[in-house]
Predict the structure.
Amino acid sequence: MKFGHFDDSRKEYVINTPKTPYPWINYLGNQGFFSLISNTAGGYSFYMDARLRRITRYRYNNVPLDMGGRYFYINDNGTVWNPGWSPVKTELDEYECRHGMGYTIIEGKKNGLKAEVTFFVPQNYDGEVQQVVLTNEGSEAKEFSLFSMAEWCLWDAQDDCTNFQRNFSTGRVEIEGSTIYHVTEYRDRRNHYAFYTVNDEIDGYDTDRDAFLGSIYNGWDNPETVKAGKASDSFADGWSPIASHFKKITLAPGESKTLIYILGYAENPQDKKFASEKPANLLTREAWVLNKEKAYAMIDKYNTPEKVAKGLEELRTTWENLLSIYKVDTPDDKVNRMVNIWNQYQCMVTFNLSRSASYFESGIGRGMGFRDSNQDILGFVHQIPDRARARLIDIASTQLSDGGCYHQYQPLTKKGNADIGGDFSDDPLWMIMSVAAYIKETGDWGILDANVPFDDDPEGKHTMLEHLNVSFYHIVNNLGPHGLPLAMRADWNDCINLSCFSDTPGESFQTYTNPKFKAEGGYSKIAESVFVAALFTYTGPAYVGILEHLGKADEAAKAQAEIDKMKKNTMESAFDGEWFLRAYDANGEKMGSHECEEGKIFIEPQGFAVMSEIGKDVGADIKTLNSIDKYLNCEYGLVLNNPAFTKYYIQYGEISTYPGGYKENAGIFTHNNAWIICAEAYAGRGEKAFEYYSKIAPAFTEETSDIHKTEPYVYGQMIGGKDAKNFGQGKNSWLTGTAAWNMVAISQYILGIKPEFDGLRVDPSIPSAWDGFKVERKFRGDVYEIEIKNPDHVCKGVKKLTVDGNEIDGCIVPVAGDGQTHKVEVVLG
Ligand code: BGC
Ligand code: NOJ
């Protein structure tokens, strides 16, 4: 069952009912100001950091689920309704929500009155613009009232939802004309403020929540002022501040009226915080006056429909350009729609927000993840390489000089989070992978010389190359009894906590390590991760390639020897006969072996081991891939492990606490499905690669939206696995490494257009039924128009490759570097 449809020509998903199986959201903003917006206009806004600079309030895990947003209320002769249906939930005569690239249009119609609201955050602008177009489609004149509503969050979202003894006494506002300013804590230690304005005179306002609602027993679905058709002109003072504009409107039949609201954020320099004069019409309870110059300028920027149209046009052009870098034309519309539109769009969102703020991540729990952001770069780097570069330097600067990493950092402060700490064994390797991806995309070898400090030596002169070096050797210098990398607190799978041994409720699996490992430095020196071993052998060659390019042959050979040794150790101690083990636990026992009672096979190490060709000479790759198909493949994707754990295994930790089929306990973790898709494509099995891809790619799940529940245009982290009662149900949509990795899987492995240090590899691995496909790829200043022909209907194998008519050996198109368009023709066979 579907709840809408794709409109590819406008790059939109069109939702035709407000009652989607879960709030289906979009993200507005891609620089500093961000908003989340659901199909019923729920959500919230923040500047840079969803925790430390939250602008509007949201109520998590609420009943009803999606409560808090920017709501417009209409009172049309006693019928109160919202264009987005919620929160009043009056049945609408017509409803439509269009989520597009950085904007959302919600349209509702009731009793002949149509309200269309366009929400977007313009480029280079710290505010959300909301354009409301009201049209009387009836045959009689209409007189009605319109109320806006935004509830301010008191900046630090964590404090906001816990520290009521203070917060209930701090709210402050100023009102000037049609603009309501949120100035809580401004006088003291903050130099930022927010405002909500409308480009017309108003007939009243409310800034005090209780006054707007009329009673503390009323919810957003039942505001007294709206029902009364009149604002109460309340002034918030030390109490929950909101911003609501009240406007009386009369429309003749066929007449329209456009109003533009702006929810903005601004910062003042310390010495310009206050205005010297108090304007006559200013309402305030304070002796000081906010300096509003920045707000005035922001308001001026979008106060007419023409200016709004221009802002929307700029946004559209921005996205046209971003999406013109990798464009594909395959025989499958769903692939085209994922690659050309939604997957790339989601990669921008994950790049911006890591795992911080979604409808499953509260924005107060964690900032940017070290491993997460590094992986996000893989799917984003071609879009805006300069931003990727800046991010790489930020992330690397949180690294320690021994190669260890802070696992997370706050985007506002760019400092590692001490409360979660480090010692996640995989973290350093993602850094090598992302820096290599950046160089492969751009050819900017200069990044290796960039001055990048270490967290424990902030003033020191260090280069990015040094960061890669310590990353590589952090693995090599921390091996366990089998010569495999120590698992430390956890590897990619946060829920395999081999040093935890937790038996007390409340101990966080993420941060707790058993005191018995204290003497050993904080984690077991026995537990080893086969996943990290395989990730090392997969990623290490990029480091070697970098050294070779720099002419450091000795260092390269030394690093290569470590990779070779790791492959040998893995094959000797971690190949289980039909697949690779997952780990050795702290007791030195095998995890993920046919000898285990449960959790006999895990997905994570397999793909990287196959792509590293570990044991390929003895057929380990094909055996492994076949085992995955046999034990992990099911209707909706590949489960993470099998059989699911049915007991608590204290030596494994959190993974065994989930009911079977959910999350890391045998859920379909789409992130690592991508690694198998890559591996199948790598092994030349294009059919299988595509089968797995089409099981999880959102556009393919659209028809079963009633089962899948989350948005059919973006990946979620997890889908309920075959052991789950809710088999096939998506969870944790939007902020997941799946976005980047599936972009890599489809664009670089299946379609096979892969940047390398010395050119663009073209080596597809596709379903044999395809006659071919075309890709337009902008790469290092040139444009490559690539046409793949598949006359023999094979999955993989480049028989002939020509560039501008000249045949070349192999399948790497050399960089032309002339800024021209080049025709690449490839014949498979
Ligand atoms: C979740 C993981 C997540 C981790 C860190 C765990 O509970 O299951 O998916 O990465 O927490 O926040
Ligand atoms: C989500 C986290 O963001 C990611 O870092 C981790 O790898 C997966 N969960 C698996 O546990």
